[in-house]
Amino acid sequence: MSKENINYEEYYKGFYKIWERSISDALEMWKKRPSQGGNEAGEKTQDFDSVTYYKKFYETWEKTTSEALEKWVNSPLFASNMGKIIEKSSELKKNFDEVVEKGLKNMNIPSKGDIDRILNSINKIEEKINDLTDMVDELKIANKKRSRK
């Protein structure tokens, strides 16, 4: 496996800037939230629609966060790490399968491989029986034709 030539410092600086902007945009919007009470003169300000406000807040957060996630997912760092994870997962599954196979063998319980081999043998026997049945049927037909003559 070759060493990746990735500038981690620059990558994380860029990722952090995008993340920081997403948080600051969300906080800025939160600060601009209209007052729920009245103004200084005691007059009631416009009604506050919390659903619309939170929807707007979510949209702002989603937009800026998606930029950060897109940068992360499209980075060579992410790709190389995902490759390593998949490789290790495959090794783990192989080792786990071997452990299960040995454990089942020690307990005298048939494994999937044992059952597959038995099923394969049964299929071969069934094919041979079908071939023999066809031959017997052909012989019966031939004997009936001879006996009619």
Uncertain stretches: none
Q: Give the total of beta strands.
A: 0
What does the main sheet amount to?
Answer: none
Mean pLDDT: 80
Estimate what percentage of residues fall within beta strands: under 5%
Helix/strand/pairing class, anyone? mainly alpha
Percent of residues in helices: over 70%
What is the helix tally? 4
Q: What shape does the CA trace take?
A: elongated
* Order of helix and strand elements from N to C terminus: HHHH
> What is the gyration radius calculated from CA atoms?
36 Å
Q: What is the straight-line distance between the termini? A: 80 Å
Structure description:
With 149 residues, the protein is mostly helical. It has a domain at 112-149. 78% of the residues lie in helices and 0% in strands. The protein has four helices and no strands. The protein has helices at residues 8-31, 50-73, 76-106, 112-148. Helix 1 (8-31) packs antiparallel against helix 2 (50-73). The termini are far apart. The model has no long low-confidence stretch (mean pLDDT 80).
